[in-house]
Design brief:
The structure is a homodimer. By secondary structure, chain A is mainly α. Chain A folds into two domains: about 15-80, Orthogonal Bundle (Arc Repressor Mutant, subunit A), CATH 1.10.10; about 85-250, Four Helix Bundle (Hemerythrin (Met), subunit A) (Up-down Bundle), CATH 1.20.120.530. Chain A has ten helices and two strands. Chain A has helices at about 15-30, 45-50, 55-65, 85-95, 100-125, 125-140, 145-165, 170-190, 195-215, 220-250; strands at about 70-75, 75-80. In chain A, strands 1-2 form a two-stranded antiparallel sheet. In chain A, helix 2 (about 45-50) packs across helix 3 (about 55-65) and helix 6 (about 125-140) runs antiparallel to helix 9 (about 195-215). The longest helix of chain A is centred in the last third of the chain and has 33 residues, at about 220-250. Chain A binds a DNA duplex (30 and 30 nucleotides) through helix 3.
DNA sequence: GGTCAGTCCGTGGTCTGACCAGCATAAAAG
DNA sequence: CTTTTATGCTGGTCAGACCACGGACTGACC
């Protein structure tokens, strides 16, 4: 059952056609008049109701779909989809494409988000947040021998930290940037998971961060988190250097 | 002179028509084959070259334009535009729309970015960065008596801090979220710029942050920056409370 | 009576061809 | 040489038609 209402704003707006239709829907999305799951009218009816031709309407709908706000499927219709972090991630990728050192830069953003998140988490985290983080810590230990699963467990742990901050904005931004780092993260793990000194250090670092969080000590939590990132960075530089040395030998 | 090249990928891709054209251009943008300022072929020629009809091509182009990647103007043509932070801001607004406490949340993100940025800036900032920040500090002092100009000077100061970090990603994210806070920031300033105790404290806080940065002391810089935000938050709560009390009296 | 297959209809997806409106350049008039 | 006009580009819009896919209904068959 289509639950949308056509309010038909003033037609004589300055921006013409497609743009007007686009902003019309976008504003309804922002205002909440259109909720996730709602089904839009058929294109032909909608075009008639809005007073534009079908191609113009389609341009607007297609744009909304590409932005991730609409789920258009042939034979079914167009459905409103709640905007998820994937949109943000795509926009970020596009914005950061011309930048050099993207990975380093995005890592800095990740550190920024996490350090702020864990401070908030020390204030706001509920018991069940701490419990789930503890469970993820166990999962991390259990998956040390598998780079892929281990990487995912690592990500899940850090994501839970951010979630415990209770800040939706931090969460969304984190979800947007983290996937960009996932690949290199797993690759690095593949180089190091055989070395007990490194993996045990990894586990210990995570545990210490968790303990500081459980003790609600923001300064200690942030300090340990930064230390964790610093060690990771150091490790990354080492592997980078040794890979260059290997290249040098081959040449 | 149109400088684009049509490489004409495999036509029998899985995704049909419009979506294919869209990803085609998006990937060229990401890969750098299309640089900012380039002019696309005319719609009719482009449609012919890509083997799709004009409406389909238009849907893709319009989507790119709405994403901010293209600048399409009647009678002129379509030009590639470098993706700016405005795209990110819009995506962020859409993603955060359903969240509660948006302003508080976004403020947390801002604190996260700035605190990380100033740490990086302590390592990386060049002399000219410090000079420009010092100049903006003077501008901030000069504009204390005007809420609007003062707010802008405040923003410019903090933006310069982030720029000094040398991280494009932090910069882009900061530019995306800061405008969301600008309005409330100026409004709060309008309530407080008459009180010398507050404004002098404000200047002093900024100065201390700058000094710590100039002395390349990351811990001190972050601590002072957090203190600056904490005081601002406290102030905000006070005005909120007194506004509620005023309401109570009226009723 | 229940189940499954075939058909029908509504949906988005695409195409063709045409016309309108803004802009730039070049040609023509002063 | 400057100003004005005319022409041709460009994107913007529209109408109508057809295709492909999905779901729902209906019928026959078990």
């Amino acid at each position: 059952m289509p639950s949308m209402e056509i309010v038909r704003t003033d037609q004589t707006d300055a921006p013409g056609g497609a743009e007007r239709v686009f902003t019309f829907f976008r504003d309804q999305l922002l205002a909440g008049s259109l909720k996730a799951g709602d089904r839009l009218l058929a294109e032909r009816d909608l075009a008639l109701a809005l007073g534009v031709s079908r191609p113009v309407l389609r341009e607007a709908l297609r744009s909304l779909a590409i932005l991730g706000l609409l789920d258009i499927r042939q034979g079914r219709g167009a459905f409103v989809r709640s905007a998820d972090a994937a949109v943000l991630g795509q926009a970020l990728t596009l914005c950061l494409a011309p930048e050099p050192n993207i990975l380093d830069d995005v890592l800095q953003a990740r550190i920024a988000i996490e350090c702020q998140a864990i401070r908030l988490a020390c204030e706001r985290a509920a018991d069940r947040d701490l419990q789930s983080i503890a469970a993820l810590l166990d999962a991390l230990v259990d998956s040390l021998d598998d780079p892929k699963r281990g990487g995912q467990a690592d990500y899940a742990f850090h994501l839970a930290l951010v979630r415990a901050s209770g800040s939706g904005a931090l969460m969304k931004i984190y979800e947007a940037i983290a996937p960009l780092l996932m690949r290199s993260h797993v690759e690095r793990r593949r180089d190091t998971f055989r070395e007990p000194a490194i993996t045990s250090g990894l586990v210990e670092a995570h545990r210490q961060v968790f303990v500081a969080l459980a003790e609600r000590d923001p300064d200690a939590a942030e300090r340990r988190l930064r230390e964790h990132f610093r060690i990771g960075d150091e490790l990354r530089r080492k592997t980078l250097i040794s890979s260059y040395q290997a290249k040098g030998k081959r040449s």
